Amino acid sequence: MSENSPENSETSRPSPPKRPLWVKLFLATNLLLVAGLIIWEAGPTSHTREEIAVLEEEKTEAVQHALEQNPQNISEKSGEAIDYVIDAEANDRWAHLRFATGKLFYSEKIAHDSLDWDLAFRRAKIVTNGGATNPNGKAGVVAYETDDFDAITSAPEKGYAVDQGTENITEAKNPFLDHWYNYDYWNHKLRPQKRIYVMRTADGKYAKFRIMDYYCGKAPACYKIKYLFQADGSRALGK
Q1: Alpha-carbon distance 14 to 22, whole Å?
Q2: 229: part of which helix (H) or strand (E)?
Q3: Which residues, in sequence order, are bridge partners of residue 217?
Q4: Tell me, what's the pLDDT at 73?
């Protein structure tokens, strides 16, 4: 057999470079962490059925109690900051909120043809009544990287991001609201980013809001928000 035969060419190829020791240690550590998380997530629960039922009942009571604290006669509180709770835990329905009235209504699908809402919530998803979600709505959002609610005293004239289409033709997303949270990997919880959102509502008026929390007790998708709505149509949002 010739020295230049394919067999000899294969055996004469140089072996691939060896990985440095620190790379091997880094990869091994990450594999152990991932394996530990998988085992922890998949491991058997220590709760009995009775205990699980009690926990679910406690969650329901926490959400109900929080909802009962929502203020009444919100239409009379134009220009005032309001603390408000939205129950958006169900996977099969959207919670629609109108700032002017503080009224919620629920539907299986987003109310694309209605102007009687400004924001819609389902689990960690939030959309607005404008852009790709509803071309007839005027809703849009601007985000400010601050947690000082009183620092934002007026709505800008322009710069509002409207909902954009996605690969899922039935749903859109808003650039400022698509990533409103940080994910806590150790506790598996969503933490709102420190942002104040200024919103142009579906009917062209203005509001500002902040997402304060995503939980009522241990119940998820129980949004606690603070908002101020300006009913007179001006861009004034506080002193």
Answers
A1: 23
A2: strand 219-230
A3: none
A4: 84
Q: What ranges do the domains of the chain cover?
A: 49-230
What one-character DSSP code corresponds to residue 108?
Answer: S
Q: How many CB atoms lie within 10 A of CB 94?
A: 23
79 neighbors 98 (Cβ within 8 angstroms):
no
Task: Decide: 127 and 141 in contact? Cβ < 8 Å.
Answer: no
* H or E stretch at 41: helix 21-42
Residue (of 104, 108, 124, 105) closest to 173 by Cα position: 124
Rounded CA gap, 161 and 141, in Å?
5
d(CA 52, CA 219): 13
Token duo for residue 76: 């009379």
CA distance 67 to 165: 32
Q: Cα–Cα distance between 88 and 77 in angstroms, integer? A: 24
Q: What is the pLDDT of residues 84-138, one digit of tens each?
A: 999 999 999 999 999 999 999 999 999 999 999 999 999 999 999 999 999 999 9
| 8-state DSSP, 239 | -
Q: What is the residue whose two structure tokens read 């309001």?
A: 82
- Taking only the tens place, the pLDDT of each residue in 48-97 is 877 667 677 778 898 889 889 999 888 888 899 999 999 999 999 999 99
Residue of 96, 99, 94, 105 whose CA lies nearest to 84: 99
**Sequence letter at residue 129:** N
pTM of the model: 0.77
